[in-house]
## 1
Amino acid sequence: MAWVVLQVDQEDNMSNPLIEMKNEYKIYIMGTEQVYANDNINLKIDRGEFVAIVGKSGSGKSTLMNIIGALDKPTSGKYILNGKDTSLMTDDELADIRNKTIGFIFQQYNLLPKLTLLENVELPLLYAGVKASERRRRGLESLGRVGLKEKYSQYPNQLSGGQQQRVSIARALAGNPSLLLADEPTGALDSKTSKDVISFLKQLHNEGNTIVMITHDNAIALEAKRVVRIHDGKIIFDGDTKEYAAKFQISN
Ligand SMILES: Nc1ncnc2c1ncn2[C@@H]1O[C@H](COP(=O)(O)OP(=O)(O)OP(=O)(O)O)[C@@H](O)[C@H]1O
Ligand SMILES: [Mg+2]
């Protein structure tokens, strides 16, 4: 008789959506006024999706990104990340789930100028408590994925903008996160370099990574598979990219 061993993965709750927001509000108090920066957001994102969150300046994108990235908590409503409700977490618990689950890609790369490329890429692994030899191995592997392994001992200011963004993507990938969260990833780049970065994100999506990309730029949003449009803190469109382009009469 054979024994059947059921393996239950405690870390990844694969049957749930990766991201689930239910009646999520973020309200800022400005003097006597209340600003509904997120106004009743309901959103589900599954593993393996490539979603663009698009909206004009002031529409609430950064606010939403901070909540998705577990950098901030909703004023009310629920945010469930990888099966865990973040609304009741302490700051330490939020930092922990953030370090384990999310790789961040920022508009301005946020590389530390006095650290080498490898040290920059290793940084999230250091925070996650990975030991030195393993950090180095994973850091080099990650730099290899973005084609910059040979430059590991150089410094950020010795690279072009596009290369620096690739290093920041390597840093985001190093911890093997469940979600890549990109905030205006091409905002600081010229159009050709932007195309390279976007095609690299598409490649990562094709390899199975889940990507949420925040942008104000419709042309960039059209590169994703699904578009969520926000306006005055509310979702006004959520669907397939082609449908989005047709509805808002956008062409690329
Ligand atoms: N800390 C804060 N205190 C008060 N109001 C805030 C705060 N952060 C954001 N807001 C307000 O919330 C709304 C949404 O801001 P948010 O930064 O999320 O917009 P955004 O879509 O990221 O804009 P941009 O494209 O310019 O970055 C705006 O009206 C903004 O003024
Ligand atoms: Mg913003």
Note: The longest strand covers residues 33-45.
## 2
Amino acid sequence: MYDGLQRPLEVLSRKTGEFIARGVQASPLPEDKLWRFVPSLEVGSSVGPGSQLGAVAESHIIEHRILVPPNLKGRVVEIHEGDFNIHDTVAVLETRGEDGISRVEIPLAQRWPVRQPRPYQTRLAPREPLISGTRIIDAFFPVAKGGSAIIPGGFGTGKTVTEHSLARWADADVVVYVGCGERGNEMTEVLEEFPTLEDPRTGAPLMKRTVLIANTSNMPVAAREASIYTGITIAEYYRDMGYDVLMLADSTSRWGEALREISGRLEEMPGEEGYPAYLAARLAEFYERSGRVACLGGSQENGVPQRYGSVTVIGAVSPPGGDFSEPMTQNSMRVVGTFWALDYDLSRRRHFPAINWTRSFSLYDLREWYRGRVAPDWDDLTREALALLQREVELLEIVQLVGPDALAETERAVLASARMLREDLLQQSAYHGVDRYCPASKAYWMLKAIMDFHHRTQSAVQSGVPLQKVSALPTVTEIARMKELPLDEAETHIKMVMDHVRSGFAEWGVN
Ligand SMILES: Nc1ncnc2c1ncn2[C@@H]1O[C@H](COP(=O)(O)OP(=O)(O)OP(=O)(O)O)[C@@H](O)[C@H]1O
Ligand SMILES: [Mg+2]
């Protein structure tokens, strides 16, 4: 847990108490702690940038791979197994430079300037979604591993809750959470809660994979910018080890405000709304540091398997008044692949997550993965469901103009199905013991059951069954309760619900 300048907050609080005093220094990593280093190479191996020298067990789940720094190349002349602190030399390289052969000592810790992206071998197209455990995201607007997304939303629409829930449940190996200029108690919440929650993939406490960078609203404004860069650099560092890393920033707007303030004091020419003219470039540079890559130190040189890693960046944006036309939202939207538009009306009606399904988008093509890994008809189902929600918007407009009597019975049935989709699928409480995390397979079965019900409703209504009778089927309440089904039995239960749907409609001759 760090502040914006990567000073460990625990150490700072021991040094200066609750508030950070001016000019305190502290090493980001404990300098006296010994780590067991196990080499994976022998003396004589030739190594290049990013080659793995060995590993340290950072926790049960993270193997901290010790790599050759990105600018070095040579032959290993010494390498030791043993217990070392971060500055001890674990290996010595012999490098050939312009001024002859020199020896370079390699310690466990590395330094890197935060504004400079860490290099990689090649950039790869994102292929796999970052499964978030939130149905509307996974089913309709997924973000790829190595992609980028923003969550813009007005005051109290659920940016922080969404970011926290992504930090908890997204299937990343390492999570870097940057609290940038927001409330301190939100960081405290994370700190108190994460050690008690289990990562659904590994069973280890969530804290074991999380790096927190707190630059809360009472900390210096100039350090907000540093906190963003520190976060992304730590994310890249773990990416280079071959991990899928998720970086979250709440809120990037506070960083934008810091840029505006600093630029003002430097008396630079202001751009739109007083933001500096280079705002768009800064944002693009930052989001472009996300990506899925083949890491340096791959197989060519020494038969070591190629490592692949990714950094996914998700930034919250707080547009004043929830107006998405302001510069931070517009400039971020242009460079990211996924846009989750939080809607004030939805949040006021307590429809959470308040992600608006008509304004949000995802540009990643992940259909192949879903078809292979979740279900062959995933894509057809989600597309049809989204079309149904779209149709609801059109029909509701008609109702507002000319009243509900203008609708045909089948159209009223569409409204009923869309409502079922909204209430029983899209609404998902981040605070419910079971429903806060929904694996993609469960989301699929829920969607399948609802769409199945929808199709049967349409056939029944077309053959003259009144909609009222359909809506009174007892299985409607079973569908509403699907989200609360325990995860390990969800699939069997939902298949049972679908059996009930089938038998419920059978009496009207619909099958
Ligand atoms: N997914 C969710 N499930 C349940 N409740 C939610 C969810 N998202 C938001 N809420 C409710 O909305 C409230 C406000 O959410 P949150 O603090 O995330 O808003 P915010 O957009 O971060 O606001 P601010 O602009 O003040 O930072 C929460 O306290 C919670 O009651
Ligand atoms: Mg917030």
Note: Residues 299 and 306 are 5 Å apart (CA to CA).
## 3
Amino acid sequence: MLEITFLGTGAALPMYRGSNSAYLIRTDTACILFDCGPAILQQLDAVTVRPSELSHVFISHRHGDHALGFPMLVLAWALEQPPDQPLPTIVTSILTWASLETVLKHSYGDDIAVKCLQALPRILLPHDVPAQLTLADNIQMHTYPMNHSAFAPVLGAKFEIGATILAFTADTMPCETIVPMAKDADLLIHEANFSAILQPELAQGPYGHSTAQIAGRNAHAAQVKRLALVHLGSHLQGKEDIMREEAQREFSGIVSVPVAGVTYAF
Ligand SMILES: [Zn+2]
């Protein structure tokens, strides 16, 4: 079994049916959460997944729309984790972990949540070079530095699950690591915060983000099978067809703009 569920596909500011970007990868042996914005407990609840069911949590970077749900996840584990159930493993960069730890300690002080934080298994990675790790039997994860923010360096990630490859850019403007990361992926989940059609002045991807055109070009160059556009800016609500068309001008495979709650099975 391999499924990916889109818990949210919005950008920094949530919009109707577009809460912050987060994804759930479920296999027979793992339940991996990718990013956790402020509404993550509600997003998990919407697909009837308890925080205690997570086996791994990956956090791409420390911007609030990707990380501010972390204290609430820790609180949920502290209060509800069944004693016979192992805590999930946190995977993130060393730099992002320092922020997560600080936010949790400033939120809950020296109490049960801090004890839970200290007990969390964690794998801390460099933010500026690629890394590889084994998450579970048959699940390899590769992280790659993206190009988003000097303050909040981003790790994109590729998951090799059996013969299936899922690749995630998280937040990024064009950079040379996207295509190697996404090479031959069954699904590339690429941010598209802007539109080159609707905002031609942003076609080169400034402000740390990408357009649907850039996502389409990367999907074509990496020869992926399918492209999902996510992290659409709130100004693009209702413009999903234009975003899809913008990417399809560059990429002949399947392009989708998923909404929260949608699951793809492989
Ligand atoms: Zn960001």
Note: Helices lie at 40-46, 64-67, 70-80, 94-108, 112-119, 178-182, 212-222, 240-248.
